[in-house]
Design goal:
There is one protein chain. Helix content is about 25%, strand content about 35%. It contains 8 helices and 25 strands. Helix 3 packs across helix 4. The longest helix has 20 residues. The radius of gyration is 24 Å and the shape is globular.
């Protein structure tokens, strides 16, 4: 291993790192101690007093409590709202603070393996927001991680690829997951839609109302109450579903001794697995796969963070009318910014074809070009730019590029936003 391939689960309370092992051909978690729970690295940052020295994790907590530095927490939330923190009279932006945190995270595997170069880092995030991702990109750039070395993934996608990387006998039917943290309780569902080539993996995440503060697990009465809550939740979510396996993750499931009734329900004719590094492992699998010449996963994954529909249009190319693909179903929406140029030939509207991957239903979105300057036929060149604010929200911009010196570009823009399924 001459370059690091990492998966990082980045959350407000804790972060986790998985490193792809070329020996095991699988991710392995970075542990701060001897037990699995030590893979949880508190997402906190401490600046040492009077120094440009930054600490993270439990050590940051300890030194701040001793009065040796100033601590900042909730770094993901701070980045989301583009906030800042003032330390020793200096204001630090959320991007700068996150940059320091990521730098110290990367220092951990670099020190352990003696490898500085990074091939790819895939970040798993609970929610994908375009502003958050732009700021996280800037934070990565601050520490020398260029855009081609980073990936941003939803927890749903991490879950999907983690499961898809397991032996197939574990997921002949539906697979579900429960993620219990102080931030809430999330339910995941993954099913393979067979009979299509390539095969479809369809996954979803559902935040559940049954969430509770993990502090209640500190007393026997609270444990029984939490067990009852989760047992009722299992009844509601799993009844009448053919589930092969159940995965438990999150600091709330570091141990399940407090939840005997819940465990009994989910173990009924199902295989159950627990582990703290599911999302970072899933991200690491994707990071490694992105370094290969061809993907090792013969699937189209439809989930949060991935486009469920393809977007195309018809245009004449080399004398033939062809369907030009602009965005493919299963693509990561944040990485799917597309730009293409066309010359208008007796065309008065741009007709985009929306094709959901999992159905045969096709929709056409027609965008009028009447706002463009009036010119003779075949003397207007347009640039079509597609960008995405989520897997459902599409923005199309049509820019007038004119036609050489005879018909200068006006740079006039027609914009249309719409939702796709």
């Amino acid at each position: 291993m001459d370059e690091l391939i990492l998966g990082i689960d980045l959350c407000d309370s804790y972060s986790q790192i998985s490193i792809f092992s070329s020996v095991k051909n699988a991710p392995e978690p970075f542990l701060m101690g001897s037990d699995e729970a030590s893979c949880l690295i508190p997402t906190v940052l401490c600046k040492m007093r009077g120094e440009e020295n930054w600490l993270i994790g439990s050590e940051a907590y300890r030194r701040a409590l001793m009065g040796e530095g100033t601590m900042v927490d909730k770094l993901v939330k701070l980045l989301h709202k583009d906030g800042s923190a003032t330390i020793e009279g200096t204001q630090y932006s959320a991007v700068t603070l996150m940059g320091h945190y990521i730098e110290q995270l990367l220092a951990l595997p670099r020190a352990k393996y003696g490898i500085r170069d990074v091939r790819c880092v895939a970040f798993g995030l609970k929610d994908l927001n375009p502003d958050l991702l732009d700021r996280l990109t800037a934070a990565c750039d601050q520490v020398g991680l260029s855009r081609d070395k980073i990936r941003f993934l939803s927890h749903t996608e991490c879950f999907s690829y983690y499961v898809a990387s397991q032996p197939k006998e574990l997921w002949p039917n539906m697979v579900v997951g429960f993620d219990l943290t102080d931030a809430g309780l999330d339910y995941f569902e993954l099913r393979a839609i067979r009979g299509r080539r390539p095969q479809i993996l369809e996954a979803r995440r559902e935040p559940l109302d049954e969430a509770f503060d993990l502090d209640i697990l500190e007393t026997p009465v609270g444990e029984r109450m939490a067990d009852t809550i989760l047992s009722n939740c299992a009844d509601r979510m799993l009844t009448k579903k053919l589930v092969s396996s159940v995965f438990l993750t999150g600091e709330g499931f570091t141990s399940v001794k407090w939840a005997p009734d819940f465990v009994k329900k989910i173990c009924n004719k199902r295989k159950v697995f627990g582990g703290q590094h599911l999302f970072s492992d899933g991200a690491c699998f994707i990071a490694y796969d992105s370094t290969l010449p061809e993907s090792a996963y013969p699937y189209v994954c439809i989930c949060e963070g991935r486009l469920a529909s393809s977007i195309s249009l018809y245009a004449v190319k080399d004398g033939r009318n062809e369907q030009i693909m602009l965005a493919n179903a299963g693509s990561n929406w944040y990485e799917s910014r597309v730009s293409a140029e066309f010359i208008l030939d007796d065309v008065h509207s741009l007709d985009l074809i929306i094709t959901p991957f999992s159905t045969q239903r096709v929709e056409t979105i027609s965008i009028s070009l009447s706002e463009l300057p009036a010119r003779p036929n075949k003397t207007t060149r347009i640039q079509v730019i597609l960008s995405f604010a989520s897997e459902n929200h599409v923005t199309v911009r049509i820019v007038d590029k004119g036609f050489g010196e005879l018909f200068p570009a006006s740079e006039q823009v027609i914009r249309k936003d719409f939702l796709i399924s």
